[in-house]
Design goal:
Signal peptidase I, EC 3.4.21.89, mainly beta, 16 strands, hydrolase
Length: about 230
């Protein structure tokens, strides 16, 4: 074993540096669920900038330096405060914000979002096809971090009303873009900054793994914050 290690020092050094890079600088994560429809699909692999917010000691939540602040509309990966599962959701409310939802309509600091119907479609929940409605969500004609669409599913039992909640210092409220099919802050609670992993920037590659495994080449390299 010692001889093997001595003869493969370069390869071992590469593995160590590669591991440090993935845990401290940038990472790529597959999308496992439908909670971010219609913007992220199962089979997408997203590039995550781990230096967007904090510089951490690799493999820990120990913060060495703050590098940036999460913005409303960022898509972020984070560890669930409930069970430490790695999740990906959108930052909806920042520290100090008062946020509530009334029958699907989101309010931040007393101002309600505006919605425009984009598309009627079907989506699957537990293998059953159900009605889905894609909406453009904006405040005063603008959306945080650029235009985006959300999805609601009228026939799904979901928490469509909550709050108002004042977000404490150092915490964030996360929602899935697929509002009626997402275990987000309505389920797991607010997310402390120390549990943030990084900001998702773009789709690296994508394949229809639930269907025929064909690559979705039109999604390769797609920015997650592109305009309509």
């Amino acid at each position: 074993m010692k001889n093997w290690a001595r003869n493969n020092k370069g390869f071992l050094a590469f593995l160590v540096l590669f591991g440090v890079f993935r845990t401290a600088v940038a990472d790529w994560n597959p999308i496992p669920s439908a909670s971010m429809h219609p913007n992220l699909l199962e089979g997408d692999v997203v590039l995550v900038n781990r230096l967007a917010f904090d510089l951490k000691v690799p493999l820990t939540n120990v913060v060495l330096a703050h590098l940036g602040e999460p913005q409303r509309g960022d898509i972020v990966t984070f560890r669930s405060p409930r069970d430490n599962t790695l999740l990906i959701k959108r930052v909806v409310a920042l520290p100090g914000d008062v946020v509530e939802m009334r029958n699907e309509r989101l309010y931040i600091n007393g101002k309600g979002a505006d919605y425009r119907v984009v598309e009627h479609s079907l989506d699957s929940v537990g293998g059953t096809a159900m009605r889905a409605l894609q909406l453009a969500e904006t405040w005063g004609g603008k959306a945080a971090r650029g235009p985006r669409h959300i999805q609601i599913m009228p026939d799904v039992l979901a928490p469509r009303t909550f709050g108002p909640v004042t977000v404490p210092r150092g915490e964030y409220l996360m929602l899935g873009d697929n509002r009626d099919n997402s275990a987000d802050s309505r389920v797991i609670g607010l997310v402390p900054r120390k549990l943030l992993v990084g900001r998702a920037e773009r789709v690296l590659v994508s394949a229809d793994y639930q269907g025929n495994w064909m690559p979705r080449t039109e999604r390769f390299g797609m920015s997650l914050y592109h305009p309509d």
